[in-house]
Write a structure and sequence with these properties.
Layout lengths: L3 E7 L3 H17 L4 E7 L8 H14 L4 E5 L3 E3 L13 E2 L4 E3 L21 E5 H7 L12 H11 L6
Parallel strand pairs: 1-2, 1-3
Antiparallel strand pairs: 3-7, 4-6, 5-7
Length: about 160
């Protein structure tokens, strides 16, 4: 049976964490996904380094026996039908199937246009595929670019992308 490691980079978003943890736990349990959740907190005053947090989380997941991982932003909750199953044919970007923090209440429809080359928010990788690309770069402090860099690493490694 496969085991999913869910990595959530975190800093200073307590209310989102309090919503995210029970929501994702309930969702994955309903899907009967065997998983372990890792909240990786950056607790220094340096600019946030999402890639470094996720790389640390990956090592924790691997040590916990996970054979695939989800790199998951804390401000995204899955829509019904989002599939967290083992990715048989390469990394999968799932962030086009989520409520973001601005519409968690689901009180009104909000459309978010996701570009074709977007590779952030929530991505699934097998442990082997993530090792093939060498993980995230630790060089991007502040918000952005680590996802673009990861996408380029996947392309260079010739991984099939969905």
């Amino acid at each position: 049976m496969h085991k999913l490691g869910v990595m959530v980079p975190y800093r200073d978003r307590k209310s989102q964490l309090e919503t995210f943890v029970p929501s994702i736990t309930k969702y994955l349990n309903r899907q009967k996904i065997n998983f372990e959740l890792f909240v990786i907190e950056q607790n220094n005053e340096d600019p946030f380094n999402r890639g470094a947090c996720l790389n640390r989380g990956f090592l924790l997941a691997e040590n916990a026996g996970c054979d695939y991982v989800a790199f998951h932003d804390i401000d995204m909750l899955p829509l019904e039908g989002t599939d967290y199953s083992y990715p048989e044919e390469g990394p999968i970007q799932l962030a086009n199937q989520f409520y973001t923090s601005y519409n968690w209440s689901r009180s009104k429809d909000q459309t978010r246009i996701i570009p074709d080359d977007y590779f952030g928010g929530v991505t699934l990788f097998t442990v082997d595929d993530f090792k093939k690309v060498g993980g995230y770069s630790n060089q991007y402090a502040g918000w952005g670019y680590e996802d673009n860099d990861l996408l380029l690493r996947c392309i260079r490694a010739k991984l099939p992308l969905d």
